[in-house]
Amino acid sequence: MKPSLIIAIDGPSGAGKGTLARALAARLDYRHVDTGAMYRAVAWRALQGGLSLDDDAAVRRLAEVAHLFVEGGRVTIDGHDVTSAIRTPEIDRAAAAVARLGGVREVLVGRQRRLGAAGGVVMEGRDIGTVVFPDADLKIYLDAQPHERARRRADDPAHTGGRIGLAGVQSDLEARDQTDATRVVGPLAVAPDAAYIDTTGLSVEATVDWVMQLVEQKIKEAV
pTM for this one? Predict the structure, then answer.
């Protein structure tokens, strides 16, 4: 029987984390958990409730009691299907603000650890290999050149709605990168033992094949 690994995939927006994580989960028959969607859903709910996104105590309480489901490509919070609603520039910015709140991160990191504790999971985010699962069986840090990440995001109507051009998308990504890298709690960083992969110029299939080789090696070591 093959071991059930915890696979952590981190990296900035537009690097291809979601595409890679979904493909790996499908090949391995693992669960896929998009932790960024958790912050997005909480941010969406906070905005709906008229909460200030810098009120850590209030947003933390929301995160603690929320009925949140993020798996299999579907995202719901308190009975609202927000799968599409959370993929907008407005929620991009709101999620970045919420992700800076230490209390909110504490609550959601706890949820993420419970989701992945049994293994057999591909979890993507920005602090999975450094904070959520520092002892993950395999850590990947996925990256790409800024212009490439901006191009990918601009081509994704789920995020831009086609309303802003490439320059606007790149500006938004640069602002998000700065926010993620400088936040006090759980900043975006490369774990010392992570495999760093720059996907600029790489096809999705080539990236997945590359990471699958790393997964297979980890499985051999664990047997």
Answer: 0.91
How many residues does the structure list for the chain? Answer: 223
pLDDT in tens, 182-211: 888 888 899 999 999 999 999 999 999 999
For residue 171, give the H/E element and its range.
helix 166-182
CATH 3.40.50.300 describes domain 6-204: yes
Cβ pair 8, 129 in contact under 8 A:
yes
**CB 86, CB 77: distance < 8 Å:** no
Q: Which two tokens stand for residue 68?
A: 């949140």
Q: Which amino acid is at 5?
A: L
Reduce the DSSP state of residue 157 to 3 states and report it. Answer: helix
pLDDT digits (tens, 9 = 90+) for 148-186: 888 887 776 665 555 567 777 788 888 888 888 888 888
The three-point CA angle 204-223-125 to 5° equals 40
From the list 47, 52, 45, the residue with the least C-alpha distance to 80 is 45
Domain ranges of the chain: 6-204
